[in-house]
Amino acid sequence: MNLIKQKITNSYLEEMQKKRPMVKLTFDVMLKSFFARNVLAYKRFLNSVAHLNIQIDEMNLTNKNTELPLYNFREYSKRVDFYTDINGNIFINLELNNALFKNLKFRNRIYQSKKISLLLKRGAKKKDIEKLEKIQNIQLNLNVKDKSSNLGEDIVVPYSIVTDTIYLNNEKTYIRYLDYYRNLYYNGNIELTEADYWLALLTSENYIELNEILSKFVDDDFREEIVRDVIALSNDENIFDIYDGIVGDMLVEASIERDREEEKKQFQKEVDEALKVLKEKNDELKEKSDELKEKKDELKEKKDELKEKDKELKEKDKELKEKDNILKKYNDILAEQEKKKHDESLKIAKKMLMENIDIDIISKCTGIAKKELLKIK
Q: Strands 136-143 and 90-97: what pairing?
């Protein structure tokens, strides 16, 4: 395939996308290969994204060949992608994160310390340390999976709480959330910087989108050069095979995650239904409780009436017998009501037992002794 002579058009890019889908630049091997292939793109990327503000033609890059040692053997897909020396006085560690990290700032701080320690050789003298203090040590972290739509960049520096000052001016960590810059490109109402465009570019889903974003901030010759590089790398069998395998694994993981989410939703639905039934039962019990309170209030009123009548009975001996008969009849009615009340409570208790509600709760709500409840269970 002759990528150099082929004119870059949307129809051509659609054809290339169908033949071999673009390997995304958020894939660490692809990003490393792209920047190694196109050094000018790497220079412009670092200069804008890491706030270097250096003339491009004055940037002399030396890429360290080995990655920093990891502090945890489980840190798969968290490895350092680039460790670059610029003009001997700026060291940049570019890291592409393709996983969610809970302790990102802490982990980056460890890498910063390791970078510095690697620069000091055994038996280093004071002048070596003074020379090291003049070097800008930058950690540039590109976060792929963390969705922080309201936060594009976080800057971490050694800071003194007591004196309210930055402790070291030559050590910074820039954490960039790529999803923010993608949203900014498509939904933002502000003028984007070159750094914004580069970070949005890394999220490109296909060749056409890549070409479109590039057209916003680079000239046509450089745009076509970058597009051709990405096409060539995407058609590299070694890169594509690794990418295809990882994408396959990610699809399987996504499917498993979807199943888990469905199970969670179903479980939550069942919990909600159970809570709804329980609320209905509680409402019923509240109604019964209100009814009982009304009955008690009625009984209290009647007792007050009886007290008044009792006084009258003391005054009239003849009327006392008649009042006694009235009281006897009332007591019979009260006993019948108490029996009805007890029977009603038993019905409620049986329903609650059928709902497997704790027997202590039933006893407390109905006033029926646990011993009696155990007999009817």
A: parallel
Q: Are 168 and 158 in contact (CB under 8 A)?
A: yes
Q: Render pLDDT for 246-297 as a digit per residue (tens, 0 to 9).
A: 655 555 555 666 667 777 888 888 888 888 888 888 888 888 888 888 888 8
Q: pTM score, two decimals?
A: 0.58
> Which token pair is 230?
């990405």
60 neighbors 52 (Cβ within 8 angstroms): no
Cα of 340 vs its chain's centroid, Å: 57
Among the listed residues 39, 134, 146, 20, the one whose alpha carbon sits nearest the alpha carbon of residue 84: 39
Give the sign of the dihedral formed by CA 37, CA 43, CA 45, CA 50: positive
Domain residue ranges of the chain, discontinuous segments joined by +? 25-203, 267-376
Instruction: Look at residue 136 and give its three-state secondary structure.
Output: strand
The residue count of the chain comes to: 377
* Distance in angstroms (rounded) separating the CA atoms of residues 148 and 138: 22
